[in-house]
Amino acid sequence: MNKLCKALIYDNEVSLSVLDTTELVNDAIKIHNLNDNGAKILGGLLTACAYMAGCLKSETGAVSITVKSKDGSCSASVSGDSSGHIRGYIDGADGGLKGGSMTVIKDDGFFRPFIGTCELKCGDVSENLMQYFHISEQIETAVAIGVKMKDGKCAAAGGVVMQLLPGTHEENMDAAENMMQNFVNAADVVEKFGADGILNGYFKDLCGETTTYFTFPEYKCNCSRKKIEGVIIPLGFDELEKIVKEQGAVSVHCHYCNTDYKFSGKDVAKLFGK
After folding, report:
1. Beta partners for 104?
2. What is the DSSP string of 53-80?
3. What digits encode the pLDDT tens for the residues 85-101?
4. CA dihedral 29, 31, 35, 37 (to 10 degrees)
């Protein structure tokens, strides 16, 4: 089961998040028929998105992460909301991420989206996410996220994220930094212990049950036929009818869940009450 555990540790001066997203990544592999390289890249981003979605304050909040390699050979996009619904897709995974940029859009639910961008430091999502928080949000964040593949399936995915809160004392900074050394190979630790095992094995004495918050992210696309209808209706009846005559139907593909929606001539006429 996917799991996100959140708590405050080190005198409530450091925010801790522990994730197990193995099932989430395996769902993405099935939906998009990903190879190992694609699963590692997209799986890392889905895990990062699950973490960031878990930090949203508003019930209507949402977050998206988009990465594009400098040469255009690879791009990926993931999005999530405060309900823990996470989804994403990737194009050109074989080439990997070669330079380029990462863009994060956070919507707090009150129509005040925050947009942050940074250059991709390398092909590792942990390094890139740390750089994003440092440059775009000016928050010192330690990230250890990993995806481990075996025989075409995700054997383990998840990791640990620690974020320093304002006014963190130096001794607690050092303690957090030293603790993070245990998660250099994050996927291996997740595979061995799971989220609960990491929490109990490494942080039991630092956070109590009453201060620990659990959520359960899942791979779920928010698209529906009704929503797609709302997308195509603004094109107007005449334009949609023209598409039907030329192509046999109006077709809309959702990249996030790999679903095709088709609207026949009768479907289009019904949308406009004809």
Report:
1. 65, 116
2. HTT--STT-EEEEEEE-TTSS-EEEEEE
3. 999 999 988 877 778 99
4. -60
